[in-house]
Amino acid sequence: LLTHPHLTHAAVLAREDQPGTKYLAAYLVTDDGRPLDPAGLRRHLAASLPEYMVPAAFTAVAAIPLTVNGKVDRRALPAPEFTAPGETYTAPRNATERALCAIWAEVLGAERVGVEDDFFGLGGDSISSLKVTSRIRTVLGTHLSPRALFDHPTVARLAAETDGRASADGPAEAGAGPGVVPVPRGGQLPMSLPQERLWFLENFTPGAIEYNVTGALRLTGGLDVAALESAVAGLVARHEALRTTFDAVDGRGVQVVHDAVEVPVRTVAVREASEVDAVLRAEAVEPFDLRTGPLVRVLLVRVAPTEHVLVLAMHHIVTDGWSMGIVTRELSALYAAAVRGEDAGLPALPVQYPDFAVWQRDRLSGAALDTQLAYWRQQLAGLEPLELPTDRPRPLVRTSAGSTRVFTVPAGLAERLAALGRARGASLFMGLTAVTQLTLARYTGQRDIAVGTAVSGRERTELEGLVGFFVNTLALRTRVDAARSFADLLDQVKSTALDAFAHQDVPFSRLIEELAPERDTSRTPLVQAMITLQNTPGGSFALPGLTAEEYEIPRAAAQFDMGLHFQEVADGGLVGVAEYNSDLFDVATVDRLCRHWLTLAEEAVSTPALPVAQLTMLEPA
Predict the structure, then answer these.
(1) How many angstroms separate the CA atoms of 201 and 190, rounded?
(2) CA 16/CA 80 separation, integer angstroms
(3) Which helix (H) or strand (E) holds 474?
């Protein structure tokens, strides 16, 4: 109990108020008289205790009364307070609490949110916490850091922090800078800073395919090809990013937004279903020309009159994971409208991607940029590259040849890892990161481990509906102390991640310029391994008269030496995808690393208080 935040003293007693009604009752003292969170306490204890050992009642007291002999004075304790999980609801009591309850309900898809509900208990995570702080900035005019929601995970506590911050900051600070607004299209439009990085890499290695983003759907039923063509045209007309090419003027990269770009739906017929994979592989490795475009391609593979595979390929410079969810939802709406002969009625976009590029460059200048860069200089000072043991010598010039291996994190393990995180005020992503860094420390023998992760880069509400390249890479650096427990390691990862989220505005490309001016061509700068939890808003492809399911396209490129990417699935478990540089690692090596990861994760959640040196990653075999 005392490892839960804000508890200072605790007494757990066996009670029998009536014959045959035995139960455990917890009496707890909190710092500053904070209210108890019974649901959060239950989750905290359930992460490491069997159900019968979780108290049935949690009661707040000012102090634990003691007898003259130093034992708990049972007769001086109040009657236990019983609160069944999920049965309490406290309505909002002021304007701030009402606004926050509405924001949480919208972001989390909850029907009703009470002021004592726990954000992470309702299904919140790192991504949704950023969406909440973005809406607070828009609705209440108060800027909160990502840490605020982790430190104040109930509406009541977050409302008090929001009101206190607004009073302290005053009106001048409330908006945390002007929002994104439309800019004139008459002159040259600059690239965003992340785009500039990809433009440089494309010119450094023309025809590279590691930044090709490709997805496919198997469509079964009567497909209206004309409606599909209309939907694609409508999507391209709606988003300027899909009508953009890139060039250099006087040595400076610029975006060129075209009034109209034709993106045909190319059709290929195959005789056998076995031929589909070959067609999809060829499409996935077809390079884009950033100067001529278009940077989006649509391919329809006809397997039978009522069976097709729809392939959508884009260059990363105009899209990201969040954007693909937007594309899926809007293509679905536009297709359905075309079939019915109606207007899709999609809401107007307040801004376009070039407006963001101008805003970003204006914002990241002067003192604001210097403050953020100072954090990263200190955080990443003296960082050594990750020296994973490879199966072949590392080439003098890094290649992008890659492949993937898929593994499963069982639902029970995923839930216990999430529960351990919730108990310590951390997200599932932070738990996954801690296990990954521990695994990499075992493999390398290094104790100073940095991994990269991706953040959406959409901290403003006006950017949530745009297709474009907003995602940014953050470096998460952890010092793995073999004598400390996994719980301590998770606490460190949580603190590091929250600080990184608070300084996420600096594009990774700028960090490379500042912190790695001397390039090692044999490896990626700053970080060589990635960890992501794919929880960006997705989209369901619901088409009239059709059923759609994802069709996996084998990936033949890797952006880093090693990457572990996780996605939650319907049964509560996780699908893990290990993306690796196939010029460095054999399949057997990657499969073994995945098994070691699973074993370490199981050990960590079973005995989080043990020193990590005592956790094994070896399977019984």
Answers:
(1) 17
(2) 11
(3) strand 472-479
| Cα 150 → chain centroid | 15
**Does residue 353 or residue 118 have the better pLDDT?**
353
- Written as six digits, the tokens of 336 are 């359905």
Q: What total number of domains does the chain contain?
A: 4
64/128 same-domain check: no
202 and 325 assigned to the same domain? yes
DSSP 8-state secondary structure symbol assigned to residue 536: S
pLDDT for residue 85 is more than 50: no
Separation between Cα atoms, residue 265 and residue 10, nearest integer Å: 66
Mean pLDDT of the 402-426 span: 91
d(C-alpha 249, C-alpha 133), whole Å: 38
Range of the domain at 527: 401-459+467-535+556-621
Taking CA atoms, 440 is separated from 321, 474, 574, 617, in Å, by: 26, 18, 20, 11
Could you say which DSSP state residue 51 is in? G
Over residues 289-309, the pLDDT tens digits come to: 999 999 999 999 999 999 999
Contact 418, 573 (CB under 8 A): no
Q: Kindly state whether residues 530 and 475 are assigned to the same domain.
A: yes
Indicate the SS3 state at residue 512.
helix
Which of 294, 326, 353 finishes a domain? 353
Considering the domain architecture, whether residues 219 and 154 belong to the same structural domain is answered as no
The residue assigned the tokens 């102090």 is 63
| 412 and 342 within one domain | no
Instruction: List the structure tokens of 29.
Output: 């003292």
Buried-exposed string 3-29: b where 16+ CB fall within 10 A, e elsewhere: ebbebeebbeeebeeeeeeeeebbbbb
* Contact by Cβ (8 Å): 191, 254: yes
Q: Residue 56 falls within a domain, yes or no?
A: yes
C-alpha span between 291 and 288 (Å, rounded): 9
Ramachandran quadrant class, 177 (left: phi over 0; alpha: psi -120 to 50; beta: rest)? left
Mean pLDDT along residues 275-290 = 92
Cα distance between the two ends of the chain = 36
CATH number at residue 154: 1.10.1200.10
Q: Which two tokens stand for residue 313?
A: 């390929």
